[in-house]
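thought: fold this chain, then report.
action: predict
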Amino acid sequence: MLFVPSLEIIAAVKIALALYNDCEIQQMFKETDLWLTSDEEWKYIIRKKMPDHLIPKIIKEKIIRLMKPIDYEVQMWKKQHETFMGEIGDRKIQFHWKPDGTIDRLKTANTLIQSDILKIEDRVRLACNYWHNESVIPIWNQLLGKHRKHFFLMCMRRTSDLLSASDRNVIQWIRRNIFEREKNSRKFKLIYFNWDCVSLQGLLPQNLTSEERLQIIRHTLKREDELHDGRFCVLLMAADQRINILKLNPYKVLRSFLLWPGQCLFIQMANHVRHDLSKIHFVCLLHTIFCQKIVPNFQDFEYVELLKEFLPLIPNDIIKDVEELVIYKLIKLAVDSRFSVLPVLKRYLLHSELDVADNAKMCNEQMIEDVAFWEEDQSDFSYTDSSEHYSDSSED
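observation:
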């Protein structure tokens, strides 16, 4: 975990998880992307399930604010593990949680690998991404001949032909433990292993030296764009080394502190790298906070207050250009009006006219593309945001 949560947070998380797993609540959430919806109806239903005489109002509100980050954790886990899951139903997955309200990915993977919920070949693939080399052997020994043949044929393919990046880790395991190639080569393992938001949370990095971990962190931050990748890179190192990780890729690592529960460290971390961020980095962070947190009505943190503290950190030579952008004008409107929650109007959807959820998803995709383009050719990139979806009217 990033830090030890308070007893109040631990208690709120426990109740929030019980509510989240309630059958009625789950059925309601199936009809919408909770973590991106601006709809308030679900809050009314959850409040009804918390008796006033048992739970104080202030704790109730904390619990409700945790529902979106909890749902985000679940949806991102499913997205990042979809190549392992096959067609199993959501209710069959037994998630293990940490006290801070984040999924314990290693314990969750352990349960899935050791159960019969997944097909045996998917259990092998999951084990190759999460477990030590020797631990996978008992699972491998359960494979039928036709399934082993499938994996052996996979080893003969080029990496670019693999169906999923995680299969690189299966090939790595087979070559080291079945074919016994490069069995004693740590370099082979580090170079060819697929390090991402799945394998970074497994047992494999725990066997590496501090220098080797830094090597895979550099590799991951260059290649991966998921918010969780930055988070898990930070968690690989001791707390006193986190600033060093931040300095390796200031934008991607700082952005990961917008995930629950890291927001309380965001400004502290931003202060360390404010002069290492470019204009495009600041603009993308502003878009992320506004379009993916404030407009979808995330209430797990005071994001308007966060913006108030973040804007003064933008260097003078950059803020002049940023002030001309539509996103800055909207943020100033939010900050100056002192509203924590903005009305969902079409003028706040900068990336998609469809709805709040699509706008947030499109924002994330555009930020990834813009930063990638800037990193590829910094000399030929000039950022201007589009006002295509912005209007000064207040129509619904």
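thought: worth noting. The chain has a mean pLDDT of 85.
final: tokens above.
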